Amino acid sequence: MTASSRPVVGIDLAGVETRPTGFCTLDQNLRAKTLLLWKDEEIVSHVAKLKPRLVAVDAPLGLPKGRCCLRDDCPCRSAGHLRECDRELLRMGLKLFPPTLGAMRKLTLRAVALRKILERGRFQVVEAFPHAAKALLGFPEKREGAEKLREALKKFGVKGELRRKRNITIHELDAVVSALVGRLWLEGEAQAVGKPEEGLIIIPKKPQ
Q1: Does position 118 have pLDDT exceeding 60, yes or no?
Q2: Among candidates 18, 17, 50, 19, which has minimal Cα distance to 33?
Q3: For residue 2, what pLDDT band results from cuts at 50, 70 and 90?
Q4: What's the total number of domains in the chain?
Q5: CA distances (Å), 86 to each of 58, 75, 129, 199, in order?
Q6: pLDDT of residue 166
Q7: CB–CB of 74/144 below 8 Å?
């Protein structure tokens, strides 16, 4: 299998293993396969079997500069709650939840740990943000329902299980969006925002 023919994996990571994580494999012809996974070991095992060119994860993959942890009793808390990539998206009018607050803490810690495992396996891992991707590509938001997002992805050219899988979940569809962002990044149709030393978020370039 050549590098260009290897798939891209998109992951809509849940904050805890008891909730479903959306997982998508997207090939170079935009054929998608999706499923739901729960445990980190399942996610790592599937990635290892697929040997993708890129893994795009919908979750914060790093902490703000100056933060060593997310404990409230640590002095590093004074470094704040936002990364530069988060600030850039906010300046673009794209809402987000800070990676250090509330329920996002569990998600951030899980995502950072998963990234380290995957990178030790020599997989390239990037951070995607489906909410931003949907806004930039003109896709409907989660609140509008799974079927409207499925139809928008089909119109964009995504094929495979997306067209025929019954009762596809929003988690799987957000994994498709993440994988699509990864594919656009490889094709030069996406950009990175933020600072490399702190963490980048990959977003699509606005259609001309």
Answers
A1: yes
A2: 50
A3: low
A4: 1
A5: 13, 22, 10, 10
A6: 84
A7: no
pLDDT band at 1 (very low <50, low <70, confident <90, very high): low
CATH code for position 122: 3.30.420.10
Residues forming beta bridges with residue 32, ordered by sequence position:
26, 160
Q: Which of 88, 90, 63 is nearest to 77 (CA)?
A: 63
Q: How does pLDDT run across 9-67, given as a tens digit for each residue? A: 999 999 999 999 999 999 999 999 999 999 999 999 999 999 999 999 999 999 999 99
Q: Which SS3 state, helix, strand or coil, does residue 168 take?
A: coil
Calpha distance 169→20 (Å, rounded): 10
- The model's pLDDT over 168-191, given as tens digits with 9 standing for 90+, comes to 999 999 999 999 999 999 999 999
Contact call for residues 180 and 26 (beta carbons, < 8 A): yes
Separation of alpha carbons 93 and 87, rounded Å: 10
Burial class of 9 by CB neighbour count within 10 A (0 to 12, 13 to 18, 19+): buried
Q: Which of 200, 204, 206 is nearest to 177 (CA)?
A: 204
Residue 19 belongs to what domain range?
Answer: 3-204
C-alpha span between 46 and 106 (Å, rounded): 22
- The values of phi and psi at residue 112, to 5°, are -60, -45
Query: Which has more confidence, 9 or 101?
Result: 9
- Residue pair 184/204 in contact (Cβ under 8 Å)? The answer is yes
